[in-house]
Amino acid sequence: MVDRESFRQFVRLLSSIEDRVRGGRVLILVEGERDRTSLLALGLPHHGIRVLNQGVSLASLAESLSEEGNEVIVLTDWDFTGGRLARRLSDVLHGCGLRVDTETRRRIARATWREVLEVENLSGWAERESASLKEPLIAGPLDAGGP
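^ that's the sequence the OP posted. Answer follows.
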């Protein structure tokens, strides 16, 4: 279980991601459909989430993303394979002229104290922590300032 302040940091980070996706041409890239479902359960906008494993090459995906947005938040799992994939995606996406945010992935890992290793488990973890800590899963007006 994380401490109250770490959970609040997670909630502020989540709110910041939502604001960025809603406010501009920022997309979130996840590995699979269950990851997408987890982020939707956390309230992130469906129009901003793209799934990696759709049967197209990384180069084709990167080109498609560059037509839709100008920044991509890479949100792969927090295991060795996910880290390696995040670095590879970053290289390919940069090659298409996109800004790439892998810092958000790192901040989520830090806020969850590595209790969550897969994006698909993030919403269940957040709901359990919210109930256990009696903390809202939505950032209040004073918390909206960002991580």
